[in-house]
Structure formats: structure tokens, C-alpha cells
Amino acid sequence: MAAQTKVSYPQIVLFGDSLFQGAAETLDGFSFQAALQFQCNRRFDVVNRGLSGYNTSNALKALPQIFASPVPGGPKIEYLFILFGANDACVPLATNHQHVSLDRFKANLASIITHPTIAAHKPKIFLVTPPPLDEIRLTKLDLAAGHASATRYTKISAAYSEAVRQVAAQQGVTLVDLHKALMDTAIAKTLGFDPSGPALGDPESGVRGHLEHMLPDGLHMSAESYRIFYSIVQPHVGSEWKGTPDEEKAGYVFPDWHAAPWLDEDEQAQL
Length: 271
Fold this sequence. Notes:
The protein is α/β, with parallel strands linked by helices. 37% of the residues lie in helices and 10% in strands. The chain is built from 11 helices and 5 strands, in the order βααβαβααβααβαααα. Strands 2-1-3-4-5 form a 5-stranded parallel sheet, sandwiched between helices. Helix 3 packs parallel to helix 4 and helix 4 packs parallel to helix 7. It starts with 10 loop residues before the first strand and ends with a helix.
């Protein structure tokens, strides 16, 4: 049998902070990363590059070590999901140094999107807005951890989500509005809440509502939130094979076992 050329699976990369790092975890029987991998099994590898605590400045400096330029026979990034902002939006404190100014945050996102190493892969790029914040819950935990005040504020975090929307539009990449999807669900499940006033989780409203279940520590997502996240990502993945005559198996990197072209005639005869 002739030697076969090495084949690498194309990649879906999740690049972000702890919100993507946590996507690998199984919470109440659900894992965002596992669900996405199952959806595109045998077609793509889902690669998690979630880095807890990182802001966009950290990410931009680390990017050349995280991503390699495409080479023949090597993996190519087909989809790149970028989720930063939760740490950039921290307020400057003596006990916390994660803050990145709003203008720098936007510039960093643009630099990540247009970085030569990323551009060489020509991936489909998706910018994800960071989720809403439950400042009421987070303040209690931050004070207990020794901070003089909350490390994050609802209105400031919302401004960083809006900045992601702006950068997505300016750069011509696809927006995944996680902030809106989670907040819409939280509002719908909080009886009697008036969304025209201060937001859920904002001390000015004094109402945590359903955010209590969606953001257990005020910042990181619950299984319910990850399920919602997956539901808005799922439609964007798979256009390569959806609607094809053999949709179930179309796009496989390696063909179905009985159709493998490297099986010799004797093996084929036994099938």
C-alpha cells in the first residue's frame, strides 16, 4: 500500500478568558465544548484556548505563541471564536490590575482579528460579547476577597459588550451577542421586572432576578447560560455540510470506514 499523506483536521478555536476555559467543564450534565465537538465530529477539532484572567492586552502578546502559521499538512483554523472583555472591564484597583481602557480594548480586538498569523488561516471570525454582570452578587464576593470595592460594575461591563458590537461591525466579522441572549432570558424569567430602568444585577435596580441562576458568582456562567451560548453558536457552524445530499457524513476528514480509498482489493472484497 502506498504511503498516505498526513491529514490534519481543520480547527474551531475558542480564544478567550475563563468564560471559554470553563466551556470545557461539564456543568449539570452539559459541556459547551463537548456539544460543539459532537456537532462537528470527524469534521473539525474544537481547540480550547481559554485563558483565565487574561485581558486583550495579555492575549495579544501571547498570540504568536498560541497560534502557528498554516503549513502544508498542518491544521488550519476554519472558525475562530473570540471572547474577551470581562477582565478588560475591571476597574483599576490596588488589588486588581486587569483593567484595559475601552479605546485600547477596541484596538486590541481589531489587532487580534487582523493579526498576520490569524489572517494567514483565513478563518471565519466570530466576536462574542461578554455576558452581563450580576454586580450585586459579585460585590459581596469581591469585598470578602479583600478588595476595597467591586472589581466590576454593570454599566462599565455593558459598555465593553457594546464595544465588541462596534468592532464586529467595523471589522466585518460575525457578532455573537451573548450579552443580549443571556439578559433577554434573565429578564423574561424575572417576574415583574421593568427592563426600561436599571439593569438586572445593578445595585440601582436592587434585583438579581434570574441572573442568580445564570451567573452563580456574578461573573461566570452556569450550565443554563452555556446552553444558551451554544444555542446561538450552533447555527453558525456546519454550513459546509448542511443541506447536502449526504448531510450525515458530508465533510468527514476521513471517509466512512467502508469507503476508505486506501483499503486494498482483498479488504474491499471482505466488506
